[in-house]
Design brief:
Number of helices: 11
CATH class of the largest domain: Alpha Beta
Largest sheet: 10 strands, mixed
Shape: globular
CATH architecture of the largest domain: Alpha-Beta Complex
Order of helices and strands: EHEHEHEEHEEHHEEHHEHHH
Helix content: 40-55%
Length: 320
């Protein structure tokens, strides 16, 4: 498959670069977790020449000041506003100098040697465009080892769970029988940690800033695969992901943004009948979610304001 030329935002030519890995972290009010994330980078990258770029989306929790105090070598970009995940990462990617480019969430802690292992895997497999690690929950349990691109079955299972046995199945886009001792091909890793080859990013282009939050890495990896660059998971490289720390600050808005982003992805990468069917499944799911919110409110598990906020969010998604 032919590969697209490099877009203006990022040159594929790094012949004079002295940096092995550029790590881009987009932060919004996650100061404590971000400091832990930054502290873990050194042990996770032994033997590599690394630059770390933090793009701060107008945090009000003292994040920029803490970075200057504790990690003065980090390149800090202050946006002055909350640009979202995709636009924030593009700011960092646009100035990155590394042979490889890493998108890393501020609520992650890479285990010793993990990021170096991902770089070594790309060095050894020149046909790969990107690689992701095995993500672990805060308690050390496995979170995920990669995903398949979304299907209608995944849309339905997300909104109408049919029991635990489907959650980690192929039907739900997972890799339940994939090895844990060696790499294997995947459609995309979670955006919490992706290490990509510079040439693959140049061929793919920037993240689509039409996604404020969610699905941007799915879209990006879909375009990377289309440009001829396969993607893999290396489960022996482990990264702890304290998930949802940024998005939990605005639950109703993030609920809406999740489904808006999915709608955008389906419209961009699938035929009209697929997008329409996904929309109808989602609308049915919003009716169910509104009824669940009503029941929880009546049972005293939600305040009146929480119930109204959740119901309004369901209505906004229904009208997408």
């Amino acid at each position: 498959m032919s590969r697209a030329p490099a877009p203006p935002f990022l040159s594929a030519d790094i012949s004079l670069s002295l940096t092995d890995l550029s790590i881009v972290i987009v932060s919004w009010n996650t100061r404590k977790l971000l400091l832990r994330c930054l502290a873990a980078i050194g042990p996770a990258t032994p033997g590599l020449r690394v630059e770390t770029i933090v793009v701060d989306n107008a945090s009000i929790d003292g994040t920029p000041q803490a970075i200057r105090q504790h990690f003065p070598a980090v390149r800090l970009i202050e946006t002055g506003q909350n640009l979202g995940f995709a636009a924030g990462n593009n700011r960092g990617l646009g100035v990155a100098q590394g042979r490889y480019l890493c998108l890393l969430n501020p609520d992650t802690e890479a285990r010793p040697g993990a990021l170096a292992a991902l770089v070594a895997h790309l060095d050894a497999h020149l046909y790969l465009g990107a690689v992701g690690p095995r993500l672990l929950n805060s308690d050390g349990s496995e979170q995920t080892v990669g995903f398949r691109f979304p299907s209608l079955a995944q849309v339905a299972l997300d909104l109408f769970p049919f029991g635990g046995r489907f959650a980690e199945s192929r039907l739900n886009g997972r890799y339940p029988h994939a090895p844990r001792d060696r790499a294997f091909p995947i459609d995309f890793p979670l955006g919490a940690c992706i290490v990509a080859r510079r040439a693959a990013v140049a061929a793919t282009g920037p993240l689509d800033e039409g996604y404020y939050m969610y699905s941007e890495e799915v879209d990006w990896c879909h375009r990377m695969r289309t440009a001829g660059w396969p993607i893999a998971c290396l489960p022996t490289a482990e990264v702890i992901h304290h998930s949802g720390q940024s998005t939990s600050q605005q639950p109703a808005r993030m609920f809406y943004e999740l489904h808006r982003s999915r709608r955008r992805y389906f419209t961009r990468h699938h035929r009209r009948v697929f997008a329409w069917t996904a929309q109808q499944i989602t609308r049915a799911g919003m009716v169910k979610e509104a009824l669940v919110a009503w029941r929880r409110y009546r049972q005293g598990h939600l305040t009146q304001e929480q119930w109204r906020e959740r119901t309004r969010a369901c209505g906004r998604v229904f009208r997408l």
